[in-house]
Amino acid sequence: MFKELDPLLHSELRLAVVSLLVSVESADFTYIREKTGATSGNLSVQIEKLRTAGYIQVEKGYRGKMPQTTCLITPAGVDAFERYVEALRSYINL
């Protein structure tokens, strides 16, 4: 039987962000943008959707005089990612 895919994670960029954050302690906005190849505007919108859903935590601060946005995955985000991967496996019968 097929499991439902989380529509929030079914977006390529949101899935890329969560996949990246699962493998690191935290990542700043510039690093995520470089790794995903996303534009700053699109990435900002997608990060806000993930934050609103409780999948990631966003911290704003400064590095020296430069503003810095750092993202961390939450336990809910880890759970959602694991459920998404499990649902994908149900589609490909691993």
TrEMBL record:
Pfam families: HTH_34. InterPro entries: WH-like_DNA-bd_sf (IPR036388), WH_DNA-bd_dom (IPR027395), WH_DNA-bd_sf (IPR036390). Residues 13-92 form the Winged helix DNA-binding domain. It comes from the Bacteria. PANTHER family: BSL7504 PROTEIN. This is MarR/emrR family transcriptional regulator. It comes from Mucinivorans hirudinis.
